[in-house]
Every structure is written in structure tokens, then in C-alpha cells.
Amino acid sequence: MKKTDTIAAIATALGESGIGIIRISGEDAIGIADKIFSGSKSLREVDSHTINYGHVYFGDEIIDEVLIMLMKAPRTFTGEDTVEINCHGGILILEKVLHAVLKSGARPALPGEFTKRAFLNGKMDLSQAEAVIDIIEAKNDLALKAGIRQLSGALTENIKTIRAKILEQIAFIEAALDDPEHYSLDGYSVKLRKIVKKLITRIEYLQKSFKDGSIIREGINTVIIGKPNAGKSSILNLLSRSDRAIVTDIAGTTRDTLTENIKLSGISLNITDTAGIRETDDIVESIGVKKAIEASNNADLNLVVIDGLLPIDSEDISLLESVKDKQAIILINKSDKELKVSVDDIRKYSDKEVIIFSAKDNTGVDELENMIKAKFISNEINFNDQIIITNIRHQEIINEAMESLEMCLSSIDEGYEEDFFTIDLLNAYEALGEIIGETVDDDVVNEIFSKFCMGK
Ligand code: GDP
């Protein structure tokens, strides 16, 4: 095996904390750590996968009292000998320990280099390495679960199965063209058509999952619209349980738009509160109104707030009509008092779902949560048997593979020669290989790992 550099980095977030970890990986990891460590035994003599108490020195100076985790290749994250020094979590201590490690022969790791080594040493494929970033960046429970599932190799297995089926057909066509005496292509196109159809169904399933995937990862872009004083800011406050939005009695005080990320039953909502959408002469406010309409047009979901204490008026009607072709939920707010607006009143102008709501006493929040979930997550996501595509790179590749398979299908239907099928099948095969990193360019690999944080 080629000798590689030994790399080291601070693997935990910089800041004051209970512990901080320096990670060292490479052929000399144990020797380098041993040079600066003093414990009851030399690290060269201890067993793999043990934790060892002692002190780290720089020259004669004790830097810290530490626990050293020692893991020998190949049963490690990177597949190389790995040492993790658990120090106290001060920035100065961590920097001093890292300095000592570097002086003893390691070099600073690049961002993502530990995970890149894991990929290059066959410990994980590219989609699993990407899952590591997703897990670190996960903002809600479902995103975390999707990441963990991808890390466990679920996507890899699925892609490998599809590729194996494609390869089988390529091999058969090649064999038949080379050796027509032993392999007959009679009636083959009918058989291939069925197989390609099935593959397309599998890929369609992955394509569909991206819709859930992007919602899980990015959140549902939601805007709250309604005329001034309907209670938009109060609802945003209630949902975000914070006081960031300004709640006031004066009509038109939410001048600009304000977006908050809110976690709701495991999914994220990026909620934008807008200035009251209405005709106005006030210049500052009219900019806000323009932004509100823009936000509403680009949103995944509109929450239309109706002031339940005032009879429905022309402003409410035009709002209800403006969301006719959009995803929307209507909230009749202020139901803690006697309402002047009924569901039937709304029905005259909109067929969207309506919730009797009160920002003041929390009425309707559960119903709203359930409704949003039902609208956006196609069915109860069960990560045991489902693969969710959350990564845009994967989505593009899957679309590309789909195009090739569809081209193959039309070549079959148009009665082309078999070697035309091979071209399309091969394109699909190679495209899918990019997801797991089998047919991927070095540039793409470098680009992916450069997105990692230091020490990962
Ligand atoms: P916005 O202009 O639509 O953002 O409305 P605000 O959230 O600023 O609320 C306007 C006024 O309505 C404030 O005085 C709130 O306290 C009041 N308000 C908001 N929600 C409710 C509610 O559910 N019940 C009652 N009774 N008053 C509410």
C-alpha cells in the first residue's frame, strides 16, 4: 500500500466546552501521538480500540491531561490508523495540542479530508460521504433520519441493484452481437422493453422522493398573508414561540418581510410574515406590500389570515382569490371572541381548507400542523423501507439516467438496431455510478469534500 501523509485537525467546534478532540489519521498516527504522550504504557504497545489515560507534552511542558482513543486500521472511520486525543475543551489547549501533533510529523488536514480518506479507502461510497455532511447540517428530525438512512447505505444498495440490472442487459447484447451462434436476439427487444419499463418505474420513485426530500432538507417556504391587524405577526410569534416579530395595534407596522425557520412535527417551515397586502399610498409600506405579493407568489404554502372580528370585505376577498391556484390554508383568527366570519362566508370565495384559529389562546395550532404535514409529506415517511433523495446532485444524475432509459425505450419502439440500446443503457449505467462515486471525476469528488467542515 502507498504510504500516505498522516493528517491531524481539531475535530470539535472551537469554543469553550467540556472536551475537545484532536483527530489524527494515517500510517504514523500512533507513532506521532506517542511522541507527545506520556501514560502508563507507550501507545505503540496498547491494544487497538482502547482508551488510554495520560498527559500530552510539548517538550518538557505538560499541555493537558487527556484520554487517548487508539484505533488501528482497518476498523476505523478513515480505514487508517486513527488516534483521537480527548483534551479539555479550551481553544488555547486544543491549538497547543494540535501544534504539538503537527510538530511531531502530521500535517494539517484539509476540510473533509478524513471523510475523503474513508471514501478512497472503500469505507463508504460517495453518497454515504455526502450523508455525513447532511447529518452534520440537519436542521430537523426527518432530515437527520434521511441522512442516517443514506449513511447506512440504503441509497447505495438501491443504485447498485439498478445498475446491475442494466449491466446484465448490456452484457447480453454485447455477447449476442459478438457470438450470434450462441445468443439469439430474437424477441429480445420485447423482453428488454419490459425490463427498461420496470427500471423507469424504480427511477420515477426516486424522482418523486426528491419532492419530499427537498422539503425535509430545506423546509416549506410559507408566507402569512392577510390584511393589516388580522393577526399575522401574532400567529408567527405563536408558531415560533418567540418575540422576534413586532406585534402592534397600529395598522401596517410590519413594514418589511420577516422570515423565521420553525420546526413543526419534524419538518421545517420557513415562514415569512408580510406587511398587510392592500392598496396603499405610503411609499415604505407599498414596498412591503410588493414584497408580500412576491413572497406569496414564490411560496410553497400560503397561510391566509382573516380577521374574524370584522365581516369579510373586499380586501379579504381579493386575498382569497389571489391564492386560488396556490397551496393555501385559510385561518379565521381571533376565535377567542365572537366571530363575525364563518366557514360558509369563506366558502363563497374559496374552496381551500379553513381552520378556526386563535393566536391568543392557541386554538387551531394542532389542526394546522396536521394539515401542513398531510399536504406536504406524501405519506407517513417510514425510513425503514423508503429512500428519500435529498441531494440535488443525486437528483440531477437520476434525471439524466431517466432520460437515457426513456431514449432506450423509444429506440426499442422505433425498431432500431440493438447496439443503439447499448449506448443509452451505458449512459444510464454510468450516470448512476456517479451517485456512488464509481464513475465520478476527481473534480466532483474534490468539490464534494471541499464542502465539509475542518476536522471531518
Ligand atoms: P398583523 O398586522 O396582521 O400582523 O396583526 P398583529 O399580529 O399585529 O395583531 C393585530 C392585533 O390583533 C393585535 O392587537 C393583536 O393582539 C390582536 N390579535 C391577534 N391575534 C388575535 C387573536 O387570536 N385574538 C384576539 N382577540 N386578538 C388578536
TrEMBL record:
Q: Which residues bind GTP?
A: 229-234, 248-254, 273-276
Keywords attached to this entry: Cytoplasm, GTP-binding, Hydrolase, Magnesium, Metal-binding, Nucleotide-binding, Potassium, tRNA processing
Top-rank EC class of the record's enzyme = hydrolase
> In this entry, which stretches build a coiled coil?
none
| Residues annotated for Mg(2+) binding in this entry | 233, 254
Q: Which GO terms describe its molecular function?
A: GTP binding; GTPase activity; identical protein binding; metal ion binding
Q: What is its EC number?
A: 3.6.-.-
HAMAP family reported for this sequence: GTPase_MnmE
Biological role stated in the UniProt entry: Exhibits a very high intrinsic GTPase hydrolysis rate. Involved in the addition of a carboxymethylaminomethyl (cmnm) group at the wobble position (U34) of certain tRNAs, forming tRNA-cmnm(5)s(2)U34.
How would you summarize the oligomeric state and partners of this protein?
Homodimer. Heterotetramer of two MnmE and two MnmG subunits.
* Name of this chain's protein: tRNA modification GTPase MnmE
